[in-house]
Amino acid sequence: MKPENLVYMANQIGKFFQYQKKDEIVPGIASHIKKFWDPRMREAIFAYIDQGGDGLDPYVKEAILHLKEVKNPAETSFQGT
Q1: How many folded domains does the chain comprise?
Q2: Superkingdom of the source (predicted)?
Q3: Is pTM, for the whole model, over 0.90?
Q4: C-alpha 5: how far from its chain's center?
């Protein structure tokens, strides 16, 4: 899948969650992507974010970075996620 399509889809998810309470936006986006995106799509967006993540909304970018950190727990500063 083209990165532009993944960015568009991720930002659409972000638009849906933007009306949630502020502390629920990032977890909501991350949860949706984790539950409904194929692992290959997640790997592609992780690779895209490694290249800068241009075009991703800030909350979406934060959610994807969190998912990437959880995937590689040795690299995260969070405990228990």
Answers
A1: 1
A2: Bacteria
A3: no
A4: 14
